[in-house]
Specification:
The chain is of the alpha/beta class and about 350 residues long. The chain folds into two domains: about 180 residues, Medium-chain alcohol dehydrogenases, catalytic domain (Quinone Oxidoreductase, Chain A, domain 1, Alpha-Beta Complex), CATH 3.90.180.10; about 130 residues, Rossmann fold (3-Layer(aba) Sandwich), CATH 3.40.50. It contains eleven helices and 18 strands. The strands form four sheets. Strands 3, 5, 6, 9, 10, 17 and 18 form a seven-stranded mixed β-sheet that branches. A six-stranded parallel β-sheet has the order 13-12-11-14-15-16, sandwiched between helices. A three-stranded antiparallel β-sheet has the order 2-1-4, covered by helices on one side. The radius of gyration is 20 Å and the shape is globular. The termini are close together. The structure holds zinc ion (ZN) (2 copies). The site of one zinc ion (ZN) has 8 residues, from helix 2. One zinc ion binds next to helix 4.
Length: about 350
């Protein structure tokens, strides 16, 4: 089969490789559409992603729509021919965290298209990929492939908003207008937050946020930022979703959150320590919580899109064929006019 194989930093080759064979409990998926994630971009740019250093060349990609091409013996669902999206985080299902419904904290998680394990796990920038049967979530017939491939990043946002508890009626700020930030904005709005504000240093991203329904946007570098926030919120935001992964944005969140408010960390801050005004956690009773990947929210994510409660269509900016994956990857770095870049995969019937 054809696949995009990452050999090192900026060395992404379209190659013929052996098709994967589904082991016990697994299914073989014929890939239709795959989104490029920020983590894929990290691997592409640096050859690694934070502490995850691949020990061999591997295939990235974990945001997908695919058809079930074959299932291992004993697998009863999904059926061959079903069109599915995938929860790429395969938790063990048996540990204390999994049993407590917190599978995103499972230490044995195997992540699709990731070097978080040794050796890395091949992902979906390929004609075929294997996943465990229960990682599949069947898509409604009318949902476009491009939206099916948005369910994974949407699940990140959905989980983050749930981590905040109810956001109904709350004044919400999202810092960072990348795909995840915009998805959090859309989700918070759908769950009743008001007003919803997004901040980003890039003007194009602030524009995208307004297009996604933000009530207001902020330039975090503006000299009169404090005044603007006072006008919008009075004493500050009830909930701030930090989706930029920029330490200054997190530091600023402590200035912009109101007493008793909450900061939800979604962005990846890197491995270095980040100095924070930690005394404010005590003196102003600020809650600072993390949000990692997602819980079991994929079917809910699908329903929210299917019923039109959230519209993710505007986020899919451009679609490239698999053969142009390196070009698509470079395009995804354009912050001003690109939100989500996806890859369309059209396997030839005999490519398996
Ligand atoms: Zn992703
Ligand atoms: Zn587990």
């Amino acid at each position: 089969m054809l696949a995009g194989v990452l050999h090192g930093a900026k060395d992404l080759r379209i190659e013929h490789v052996a098709s994967p064979v589904p082991g016990p409990g697994m299914v073989l998926l014929r890939v239709r559409r795959v989104g490029i994630c920020g983590s894929d971009m990290h691997y592409f740019e640096h050859g690694c992603c934070g502490a995850f250093v691949p020990t061999r060349p591997f295939i990235m990609g974990h945001e997908l729509t695919a058809d079930v091409a074959a299932v291992a013996d004993g697998v009863t669902a999904p059926a061959v021919g079903a069109r599915v999206t995938v929860n790429p985080a395969r938790a063990c299902g048996f540990c204390d965290y999994c049993k407590a419904g917190r599978g995103n904290l499972c230490r044995k998680t195997i992540m699709l298209g990731s070097a978080s394990t040794t050796p890395p796990t091949d992902g979906a920038f390929a004609e075929y990929v294997t996943v465990r049967a229960d990682q599949c979530h069947v898509l409604p017939p009318l949902m476009a492939d491009g939206l099916g491939a948005m369910m994974e990043p949407f699940a990140v946002a959905l989980h983050a908003v749930k981590r905040a508890g109810s956001v109904a009626g709350k004044r919400v700020l999202v810092t960072g207008g990348g795909p995840i930030g915009l998805l959090v904005l859309i989700t918070a709005r759908a769950f009743g937050a008001t007003p919803v504000t997004l901040s980003d240093v890039v003007a194009g991203r602030r524009e995208s946020a307004l297009g996604c329904g933000a009530d207001a946007v902020l330039d975090p570098a503006a000299a009169d930022l404090a005044e603007q926030v006072r006008e919008l919120t009075g004493d500050g935001f009830d909930v701030i979703f930090e989706a930029s992964g920029a330490p200054p944005a997190l530091r600023q969140a402590f200035d912009l959150v109101r007493p008793g408010g909450m900061i939800v960390q979604i962005g990846t801050l890197g491995t270095a320590d980040v100095p924070l005004p930690a005394n404010q956690l005590m003196a102003r009773e600020i809650r600072f919580v993390g949000s990692f990947r997602y819980g079991n929210v994929f079917d809910e994510a699908i329903r929210l899109v299917e019923t039109g409660r959230v519209d993710l269509e505007p986020l899919v900016s451009e679609v490239f064929p698999l053969a142009n994956l390196p070009e698509a990857m470079r395009r995804a770095f354009a912050k001003d006019d690109v939100i989500k870049v996806q890859i369309e995969v059209n396997p030839t019937p005999d490519s398996i």
